[in-house]
Amino acid sequence: MTTLGPIPPTNTDAGSGPNGEDPRNVAVLNGSGGLDVTGDIAGRTRPDEPAPAEHAENAIELKEVEGLSLGRIVLRRFLRHKAAMISVVVFVLVLVLAFSSVGLDIGPLQIPGWWIWQYTDIPQPVNGGVPTLSLLPPRLGIHPFGQDTIGKDMFAQVMRGTQVSLMIVFVVGIVSTVLGTVIGAVAGFFGGLVDSILMRITDLFIIVPLLLFAAIVAHTFSSAGPVALALTLGALSWTSLARLVRGEVLSLREREFVEAARVAGASNSRIIFRHILPNTIGVITVSATLTMSVTILLETSLSFLGLGVHAPDVSLGQLIEAYQTAFTTRPWLFWWPGLFIIIIALSINFIGDGLRDAFDPRQKRGLNRRARAAKNDSRPSPAAIEAEQA
Questions:
Q1: What's the rounded Cα separation, in Å, for the pair 330 and 243?
Q2: Over the stretch 122-133, which tens digit does the pLDDT of each residue have?
Q3: In CA terms, which of 45, 74, 158, 347 is 20 to 30 Å from 189?
Q4: C-alpha of 16 from chain center
Q5: What would the pLDDT profile of 216-272 be if each residue is shown by its tens digit?
C-alpha cells in the first residue's frame, strides 16, 4: 500500500490521533470549543447548527415568547425598552397637565380646568412678571411661568399652546398615516399601471417644498385656525410612508398566505386590509411616530415665521415668535415654550425607537435579567479558557 503525503517524524506523535490529527491539537481544540474532529467549528456536528452561545441565546429567546401572540411579544419588548417607557410617562404627564390645567376650548365644547387663569386673561403684573415658581413652598405661586409684557399668565399660554401643538401633531399623524398606508398598499398590491400612476403622484408631492406649500395654504385659510394647518401638513406628509408600505406589500403579495386567501375567494380589498396590512403594522407605526415628531418642529417653524397659528389662539411656536424680541429682557418667555417643544419631540422620538425595536424580530432587547444571566453563564470565562489551553 502506498502512503500519500509526508511521513510524520519518528520522534513526535503527530498524525497518530484520529483522522491523522495530532492528539495535542485535538485536546486543545475540543476543550476550547474550536475545531472538533467530529464537527466543523465550535463543537458543531452539522454545518447548519448554531454555535453554543448563539444556540443558548436563541433557546432563551424562544422560551421567553413561547405561547405568546405577536401582539403580546411586541408589548413585552416595548415595556422593557426603558427609554421608551420613560418617554411614555413624560408624554402622558404633559398631556394630562396641558388638558386638565386650562381645560378645553374647542368651539361649542367648553370644559374648565383647575388653573385660575385662562390664556386670554390679563391680570395685574406681579413681581415684575418674574416667574413665581420656586423650590420652597409655595412652589407654584400665582404665576409659576411668569407674565408677559402686558400681564398675561405664561403658564396658561404655554398649556394652551401645548394643546394646539399636540392637536396638530395628532391630526397630521392620523391623516398622513391613512393616506400613506392606503396609497402605498394599493400601489404595491396591484402594480403595473396603478403603481406607476400612484408613484408619479407621490414623486410630485415629494418635489413640492413642504414648508412653502404649507405656509401658502395656512396663510390663505388663516381664518380656519389650526385645523386647516393640520390638514394641510397631513395631506403633504404621507409620501415617505407610502413608499415604505409599497415596498412591504410588494414582498408580501407573493407569499403563500396571500395565494391561499385568493384561492379561497377573498376580494382584493379584503386581502389588502385583512391579510397584508396587518403584517406591515410595524413599519406603519414607526413611520407615524417619526412623522409626528417632525410635525411639531415644522409647526414651530411655520408659527415662528408668522405663517402658522395666528392670534388670538396660541401654539408653542407662535409663543416663541411673539416673544422673540423679549429674549434678552425676559428670557423665561422663551424658556418654557422651547422646553415643552423639546420634551414633546424627544418623547415621541424615543417612543418611536421603542416601537421599532419591539417590532424588529432581530432585536434581543426582550431578554429579561434572568435570561441574560443564563446567557452569560453559558459562555466560558476567560480564566477557564486560559486554564484549558494551559
A1: 46
A2: 888 887 778 877
A3: 74
A4: 60
A5: 777 776 666 788 888 888 888 899 999 999 999 998 988 898 999 999 988 999 999
- Using DSSP's 3-state secondary structure scheme, residue 319 falls into helix
Number of helices (H), then strands (E), belonging to the chain: the values are: 16, 2
Q: What is the pTM of this model?
A: 0.73
Contacts of 237 (CB under 8 A, 6+ apart): 172, 175, 176, 210, 291, 294, 295
* Interval 334-372: pLDDT, tens: 889 989 999 999 999 999 889 888 887 665 554 455 555
109 secondary structure, DSSP code: E
Q: Is the dihedral of CA 88, 89, 95, 96 positive or negative?
A: positive
Hey, what's the cell of 174? 392620523
What are the extents of the domains in the chain?
Answer: 24-69+370-389, 82-365
Fold entry, domain 82-365: MetI-like fold (1.10.3720)
CA distance 180 to 281: 13
CA distance 317 to 218: 14
What is the residue type of 217? V
